[in-house]
Amino acid sequence: MTQEIITQITDTVGTEVFGIWFLIGAAFVFFMQAGFAMVETGFTRAKNAGNIIMKNLMDFCIGTIVFIFLGFGLLLGGEDALGGLVGVPTLGIFTDYANFDWSNFVFNLVFCATAATIVSGAMAERTKFLSYCIYSAMISAVVYPIEAHWIWGGGWLSQLGFHDFAGSCAIHMVGGVTAFIGAAMEGARIGKFSRDKNGKVTKVHAFPGHNLVIGALGCFILWFGWYGFNGAAATTGPQLASIFMTTTIAPATATVVCMIFTWLRYGKPDVSMCLNASLAGLVAITAPCDVTDGLGALIIGAVAGVLVVFGVWFCDNVVHVDDPVGAVAVHCCNGIWGNNRSWSFCNNKCAGKHTERSVLRRWIRTSRNTASWCSNSSCLDSCNNDNYLQSNRYDNWTSCFRGRRDCWSGFQGAWSCISICRIQHHGYYGRCNE
Questions:
Q1: Distances (CA, A) of 117 to 49, 121, 177, 407
Q2: What is the pLDDT along the chain (434 residues), one digit of tens a residue?
Q3: Which run of H or E residues covers position 202?
Q4: Residue 365 and residue 362: Cα distance in Å, rounded?
Q5: Helical spans, DSSP H, in 187-234
Q6: CB neighbours of 213 closer than 8 A, spacing ≥ 6?
């Protein structure tokens, strides 16, 4: 009897301790907003600092309002609707004080704000504030809650056993894909690309950030907050320790690999690229942080360190998308990497009953469908912004979709929306500058 009482007390205390840690982790994630604001401000020009800070502030504040009324219900509604595609919105936060899940609300709210603020850096220095506020409301109210419901809210992907522990797919890949679409549709900053008389890009110009120290401080704040980002959902001490281990090894390895690679490639280490490599390693390890051992974290981080350099080069020199802070390379490229390939490094003792083949199928399926949902939503939102709010100098984005039924035939055609828009406009999206 005494042993049973001791066991019961231990279980109760453990539950309460990890319940408190769950909320402390949410506070860690909220503090990451300061890190994002500093990274974006430090990596851009001083004249745009006020605009960037205001957008980061509004990401959380506007997101909170719409998440209360719609987003939380779509993510964690009482019932599934449409075969697990969405939750059923409720107003339990106002009508059921005694039984409402306050912890889950706060936790998912700060994660939603993180997904929204990723886009700010890629669209920096040329986005009208009103248009950005509308985007922020859309992603917080509809885009993020629906795709996160598929994975974490009991939706169709969670029913298949898909595993994304902390959000390489649900948060970072979604934010990265949205950032890519937004940056592509808005066009480059004035002077970013030199073109010949035929419109072909002949040279890419770098716009150095005005304060590397602020950018570095933001990077360290984000790394610190990531221990809560990845570890908040841990339910045992050993699991939490394992998550902290992988969350440390992957970004450290990515940074070292990036330093060596840029040193060999460019003749000297690239400071801003190494800072982004730290974040890339964190993004890549986010999905499998609870099922990966030290060796797996090392490999995941090493690939992320090279992938972030490739992502920046690809945006500048191949698709000519102006991404001032490297958000696409960090969050989109490494969100895809962490989500699609990290299954190879899962420790079978942690991964449970899923075979490697089934895990791979689920990872690929989720990446494709989640990216497609976010692509379609973002393309539509940007078209609305251009046509009705005249947020940019070029307002004929609906031509991207004329006769392009494949773009809207389910999830499969969404990636073609991006390529069609790029091919049709050849980079002429209009030029605006703050």
A1: 15, 8, 13, 26
A2: 566 655 665 565 567 788 899 999 999 999 999 999 999 999 999 999 999 999 999 999 999 999 999 999 889 876 777 777 888 888 788 888 888 888 999 999 999 999 999 999 999 999 999 999 999 999 999 999 999 999 988 888 888 878 889 999 999 999 999 999 999 999 999 999 999 988 899 999 999 999 999 999 999 999 999 999 999 989 888 999 999 999 999 999 999 999 999 999 999 999 999 999 999 999 999 999 988 989 999 999 999 999 999 999 999 999 999 999 999 999 999 999 988 765 667 766 654 434 344 444 454 555 555 555 554 454 445 444 443 333 333 333 333 333 333 333 333 333 333 333 333 333 333 333 33
A3: strand 201-204
A4: 5
A5: 212-231
A6: 42
Tell which phi-psi region holds residue 162, choosing left (phi > 0), alpha (psi between -120 and 50) or beta: beta
* Spatial separation of the C-alpha atoms in residues 268 and 274, rounded to whole Å: 12
Say which DSSP state 290 is in. T
pTM for this entry: 0.81
Two structure tokens written together for 117: 């603020």
Q: Which CATH superfamily is domain 2-425 in?
A: Ammonium transporter AmtB like domains (1.10.3430.10)
- Letter string b/e over residues 302-320, b meaning 16 or more CB atoms within 10 A of that residue's CB: bbbbbbbbebbeebbeeeb
Residue 336 CA to residue 236 CA, distance in Å, equals 28
- Among 399, 332, 396, smallest CA distance to 370 is for 332
Q: How far apart are CA 422 and CA 417, in angstroms?
A: 9
Domain ranges within the chain, ordered by starting residue: 2-425
Strands (E), 2-128: 80-81, 86-87
**Residue 264 CB burial class (10 angstroms; 0-12, 13-18, ≥19):** exposed
Residue length of the chain: 434
Closest CA to 378 of 354, 400, 349: 400
Q: How far is CA 150 from the centre of its chain?
A: 16
